[in-house]
Write a structure and sequence with these properties.
- This is Acyl-CoA dehydrogenase.
- It is a single chain.
- The protein has 573 residues and is of the alpha+beta class.
- Among the domains are: 19-133, Butyryl-Coa Dehydrogenase, subunit A, domain 1 (Orthogonal Bundle), CATH 1.10.540; 138-241, Butyryl-CoA Dehydrogenase, subunit A, domain 2 (Beta Barrel); 384-398 and 429-554, no CATH class.
- Helix content is 52%, strand content 10%.
- The chain is built from 21 helices and ten strands.
- Strands 1, 2, 3, 4, 5, 6, 7 and 8 form an eight-stranded mixed sheet that branches. It has a two-stranded antiparallel ribbon with strand order 9-10.
- A hairpin with a 7-residue loop joins strand 6 (209-214) and strand 7.
- The protein is globular and about 75 Å long.
Amino acid sequence: MADSPLLNPRTYDPTHLDDESRRLLRATVDWFESRGKRELVDSYNHQRWYGDFLDFAAKEKLFATFLTPAADGAGDPAKRWDTARNAALSEILGFYGLGYWYTWQVTVLGLGPVWQSDNAAARARAAALLDEGHVMAFGLSERPHGADIYSTDMLLTPDGAGGFRATGGKYYIGNGNVAGLVSVFGRRTDVEGPDGYVFFAADSRHPAYRLVRNVVNAQMYVSEFRLEDYPVRAEDVLHTGKAAFDAALNTVNVGKFNLCTASIGICEHAMYEAVTHAHNRVLYGRRVTDFPHVRRELTDAYARLVAMKLFSDRAVDYFRSAGPDDRRYLLFNPMTKMKVTTEGEKVVDLLWDVIAAKGFEADTYFDKAARDIRGLPKLEGTVHVNLALIVKFMANYLFHPAEHPPVPTRHDPADDEFLFRQGPARGLGAIRFHDWRAAYDAHADVPNVARFREQADGLTALLAAHPPTEEQQRDLDFLLALGQLFALVVYGQLILEQAELTGLDRDLLDEIFDVLVRDFSAHATELHGKAATTEEQAAWALAHVRRPTVDPERTARVWSQVEALSGTYEMNV
């Protein structure tokens, strides 16, 4: 379907990007399609390392082109860090499988501390390794501590010659089996506190780098490794002291954004497969898609998936337009990590309810999607970690709007160099946002947008009249329930902004907000049931349960968009 907002490899042509980016993205799609579904499925089922994909990426210089900032690109006009085209590649890789996305994703993370560093030798080395086709790794988490970087046991002992000897283990490190460069976080043995932190570059091929095992039962390689008296030269040191701590968090700000586009790609492929199967199956003398509950589930899945794309596409613009005086992306980033990825789980669950046993079959893409979609909300902390971060922005977002220049759609071939000079990772509570009401006001004529706006206004009234008590603010379980309500308001804002910029079909927008009204009501009901909720807050919760504006003709028109997906894409065998 030509006008579908979903990625369709048969018709894919990213005309919004420059010619070389278009060529590389199309070449990536063509590589997967020529390789075929049988090989895709078999390699996943038999957990075969995706060396053929890495060979393709090396031959095309795919990662080198997309992940080398312009300043390190030796004058190559195609090399830059461009969040718009990175998001496009991330979506394509997710579409074909989490493993292919994952090796790209952890390369992004491994490069974060390098491109934030002033170490010219390390930057030149990283650029050369990318040109040679290497992938990278991000050595942050450890088995006893997870990603708690305050507690790192990677210890660096000064060697008396300006370098160190590093000893310690890292755990859950993607690409750790083959990475040409591993950005490793540790701490000095001779300096206490934050001043002792160090980020350094290691090489997985070094004899003092010991690969222990793959810690997951999957096609992808997620390593445990140990450094035993590993020599860290002065030219290997990327950051020291508090700058190393900031580099860790700022890398996550840049790299973990890709979780949303992976989730979108997985859901798109799963949706084509599910709709085509259901629409061509007859049960009890009726086409499966003639059953009302099936139409509702598939329509909801489609609305949720399009909403995921709208939010994520618009978030790209805020990343690309960010600067020292505009850090709104720091809210939209945990939203993509938490909200978009959990929406992906809901999409797959809805599709699975329709196709049932088909979703377990080994020769489908769907059974891989059903397994892999679960991982994305958990690959950066947890939903709870990101919700707790989102809540930090709530007061300024809802109550203290500030003037900001309009943020345009950003598809221009520019280098997003600010992402590697974000500065200290603090001051989130001081970030100001433009008035969220403006996007809702612009769509007040859409019935379910108006209905949801009632709920959003109600949330601000609740926080003004009955804000969380000191005790409730220490109760993370209560705050997370409140945070889900706030997250929906933020989610709706960027959906509306992108809908305006892209001229989204009005029926589809109304259907998306039909879903959001129901979601707000569900989270309000959850808040009502929390033990810490006061009587006044509980009464508010019940009073803001809303029924969406029902329009059978609108829903039927949106259903026709879903129905038209049947048969429009099936991967080459």
